[in-house]
Amino acid sequence: QEQEFLVREEFDTYTAHRLAIMKEAVGVAVPAITRRLVCRLEHHAYKACDAARRGEDMKLGT
Q: Span 11-38, mean pLDDT?
C-alpha cells in the first residue's frame, strides 16, 4: 500500500509546496541509503561509464 505524503500545509507558491514534498521524501529515503548500497551503485555507474568509453551500446533493464 502506498503511503500518502503528509504535507497538508498552505503554501504561497507551487514551488514551495513541491519543496516541502521533496524534503519529506528525503526524510523517508535517507535512512535506506547504506554504505553497501552506495558501493553497489558506484560500481554499476563505473561499469556503465567504462562501457560507454569503449563505445558499447547500453543494455536497458540491467
A: 90
